[in-house]
Amino acid sequence: MTNPHPTDATDIDIRAVADRVIAQMRQAQPDQALHLLETERQGERRVVREALDRYVSVGARAQIDEIHQSGGLRSPEFVPALERLRQAGLPPRVPDYNGREINEPNELVGLTTAQKFDVYASIVATRGSQAASDALQNEESVLLGLRKETSTLASMGDRDSRGTGVYDDHIVVLRKQANGERHVFIADRASTEPTAQYDERAEPGPLREHTPYVNVAWRRSVGEDANRDGISDLGRLAEGTIEMADADHLNPRLAGTADAFRPSAEQLRAPRDVHRVQRDTNGDGWFTQDDINGVQDLNRSFKIHSGTRANTDSAGCQTIHPEDYLAFNNAARANPQQTSWQYVLTSTEGGLRRSWPGDDGHFLCQYIHLQLPSCCVGRIYRPVPHADIRFLRSQPACGYAC
Predict the structure, then answer these.
(1) Cβ(171)–Cβ(320) under 8 Å?
(2) Residue 332: enclosing H or E segment and its boundaries?
(3) What is the pLDDT of residue 352?
(4) Most distant CA pair in the chain: distance in Å?
(5) For residue 60, what are the CA distances in angstroms to 26, 63, 381?
(6) Using CA atoms in the order 303, 309, 315, 320, what is the torsion angle rounded to 10 degrees?
(7) What are phi and psi of 146, to 5 degrees?
(8) pLDDT in tens, 317-353
(9) Which residues, including other chains, have CB under 8 Å from residue 327's CB and lie 6 or more apart?
């Protein structure tokens, strides 16, 4: 296989170009702004175009919404560009990347470190909280998780339905120094979901015969009985921004460190802990609207740590391949003064629509890819341009009507 993506270098400064477009939008020059954006996008590879759109969609959010409502464009040819910006806050596409094989698909070949930083920092801008954006400006490392929906029954290689996990997610470390120098580390062998080897339903015995769990390499039961049916339910972190703190973990020797991360004490306090965990209460291996009482508040058990080579070792934690873990940990801890880490976890393009019944009787919906960014949870009838995930009951914090 050869890398199918462009590899030529480009001299574009993604952040600077986006700022010029934003400035013109804020000066009530939308046609000129969109003309500039379309001109700069021409000839650039897809990941660069997407990053430009994301930055502009955040920086000119109020102007984009106002123009859409008022029809304030004089040039109709820019209407598709405006609509594209309105959709730029949706779950992102995961860039093709492989940090080991030179001929594997890799969209980042030929990009500078600064350009790679903007590809992922623009996702933090659209999908993360203000705290995450502020951390990037304060020389702190920010963690970004890109989740691809995967069944808890999945396993690597030919070990079909063994429930040992797949490293098909990415976790990225971003840091910007005071002098403007930018740093990026991409762990492209990561997992953000639990595995069926820890599901009570997979325990060997007659009850698992003729079920999807029949071939699972069961270890032990981990979870909570969220729907009170007598069976423990696997859990995972819901997307959004979670503050992590230092922790330790019995990582494999290959990982080279016992360092880990877990939710901070501040994150575990109300209201920051509310609805941060999803549970697979119906045991189908997915986290969907069919999971009754499938949303819970956060607890401290959801870590970031190393897995092993052939097993993600996740009962709900975020895990990284052991050969990549030490480099990830070093990148995350590059600022010795940093004691907490903003972890932005987002669903990605192509995911499923997920929804859960709320504790107040409303039907709380989290739309993945189809309609809304991750913040828009609740009875939302149009996109709400805001970045921090919230389960909304009536009036969202960003001020847009449900």
Answers:
(1) yes
(2) helix 322-332
(3) 63
(4) 69
(5) 7, 5, 21
(6) 30
(7) -110, 110
(8) 999 999 999 999 999 999 999 999 999 999 999 876 4
(9) 185, 187
In a 3-state reduction of DSSP, which class is residue 62?
Answer: helix
Q: 350: phi > 0 → left, psi -120 to 50 → alpha, else beta; which?
A: left
- Give SS3 for 327: helix
Q: Please tell me the distance from the alpha carbon of residue 368 to that of residue 98, in angstroms, as a whole number.
A: 25
- Take residue 374 and report the two structure tokens written for it: 């991750």
Single-letter residue type at 392: L
Q: Do 107 and 95 contact (CB within 8 A), yes or no?
A: yes
Beta bridge partners of 377: 366, 391
Token output for 369: 């890819």
d(CA 387, CA 130): 8
Q: What are 113's two structure tokens?
A: 């470190």
CA distance 278 to 347: 13
Triad 271, 272, 277: Cα angle to 5°: 110
Tell whether the model's pLDDT for residue 276 goes beyond 90. Answer: yes
In angstroms, the CA 366 to CA 238 distance is 10
d(CA 360, CA 258): 41
Q: What is the pLDDT of residues 4-44, one digit of tens each?
A: 999 999 999 999 999 999 999 999 999 999 999 999 999 99
Q: How far is CA 17 from the centre of its chain?
A: 25
Residue (of 198, 191, 187) closest to 156 by Cα position: 191
Q: Whole-model pTM?
A: 0.88
- 95 upstream amide cis, omega within 30 of 0: no
Task: State whether residue 63 is helix, strand or coil.
Answer: helix
Secondary structure, 3-state, 113-152: HHHHHHHHHHHHHHHCCHHHHHHHHCCCCEEEEEECCCCC
Element (H, E) at 48: helix 46-59
